[in-house]
Amino acid sequence: MTTAHEVRAYPFSEPDRLTLDPTYARLRTQEPLSRVQFPLGEPAWLATRYHDVRTVLADPRFSRALAKTRDQPRTHPDEHLDDGLVGMDAPDHARLRKLVARAFTGRRVELMRADTERIVEGLADTMVEQGGPFEMVENFAIPVPVTVISEMLGVPAADRPQLRGWSEAMVSTTALPWEEMERNAKELFAYIGTLVAERRRNPTEDLLGALVKTRDEDGDRLSEEELVMHVTGGLLITGTETTASQIPNFLYALLSHRDQWELLCAHPELVPRAVEELVRWIPLNYSAMFARYALEDVQFGDVTVKAGEPVLGSVASANRDPEIFEDPDRLDLTREHNPHIGFGHGPHHCLGAQLARMELQSVLSTLITRFPTLDFADGEDGVIWKQGMLVRGPKKLRVVW
Amino acid sequence: MSRWAIAVDRTVCIGASVCANYAPEHFELRAGKSHPRVATTDPDEAVLDTAETCPVSAITVHDTDSGALLAPEE
């Protein structure tokens, strides 16, 4: 590459509800690999086209683990960003991921569907009892994933509200001071330590019990730090905040596209497809994150990413690439061809994707069946949004029906 | 020694390429979906791990002698 690339400040703008900054569309056409400068870390390449983003995420010529040794591009000084599976390459990554992956396969998740539906129906009963206006984030969206992942891991019901607080703090970017995030991380890991100790005394059949057993019988496969921080801590955080944010994001998207809500109410069989389309259309992450470092020179069109340089792939931009998706900015629940990468791609493809799909399907099915007249209580503009988090989502969304 | 048969259900595969990353000698992506590079292989723990790790359980491993399903675990 001979011409110098303009280095753009990134993220391009502050998050604004669920809108995607128009710069992505421009870059896809004019400069598919561009130079960006995050608030922290070294300058990086940003990939915006679908195929390029998939290459960045899946090609073994790119490493996640290398990021630990570098001043990696990031939005805030989170030293825990690379804790856990997302900071690893094969073979360490494969060794740890497989210990938990079997609990999250489609088949295992199907066995949890009936229980999840019961949890969701119970929350819908509460809506009916309390009547509208009903605040959906605290009272509906958060309890669903927190209850599901807690039951999987074996977190007692009384501890779950605290768990949710820790989880939220860990994905905060500027919403909380750095020291506050650190304190929350320490508390969460200390808490997991007590759960682990309990299972050493009294073995359990839940996922955490199984992990403790693996750790104690075969210490080479799982260290104590990996057990507490990387695996269990990672599952609790990623298993709650993302789904807890997507549920009100789904509601916002559907209620602000009333025709799509009505369509879904009339055709409940569209629910699985609707979940895929909403995951595609909603730019859940506020920005591209988790830089990959090139292990050798990699060519993207006329741009060479040199060995040792960081690249980020924008999933949100890839999911709006008109080369792949017809009329990509349109939310279309009937979309048939939808190979979105909303759950990522490659070795770090969301471990909990099938679980998230099942939870989101249960939520949509229940809401359209029981509350077809659902609407914003305070209008579309009355929704209050989270600020300074890694993922977008309403902080308060009140509904009536 | 028995051999293991590897199969990928391409109607289920979403092309996440977890397998091609974990066991590149056994799996590759063709037209966006996973494809076993070999129909059978000598027993190799990495193949079982990969089958267990597939996000949509599209990979199955059978023992060619006994026909027993080795992965994913039921």
TrEMBL record, chain A:
Belongs to the cytochrome P450 family. GO terms for molecular function: heme binding; iron ion binding; monooxygenase activity; oxidoreductase activity, acting on paired donors, with incorporation or reduction of molecular oxygen. Residues 67-86 are annotated as: Disordered. It holds the Pfam family p450. This is Cytochrome P450. Residues 68-83 have a biased composition (Basic and acidic residues). Keywords: Heme, Iron, Metal-binding, Monooxygenase, Oxidoreductase. Gene3D superfamilies: Cytochrome P450 (1.10.630.10). The lineage of its organism: Bacteria, Bacillati, Actinomycetota, Actinomycetes, Kitasatosporales. InterPro entries: Cyt_P450 (IPR001128), Cyt_P450_B (IPR002397), Cyt_P450_CS (IPR017972), Cyt_P450_sf (IPR036396). Transmembrane segments: none annotated.
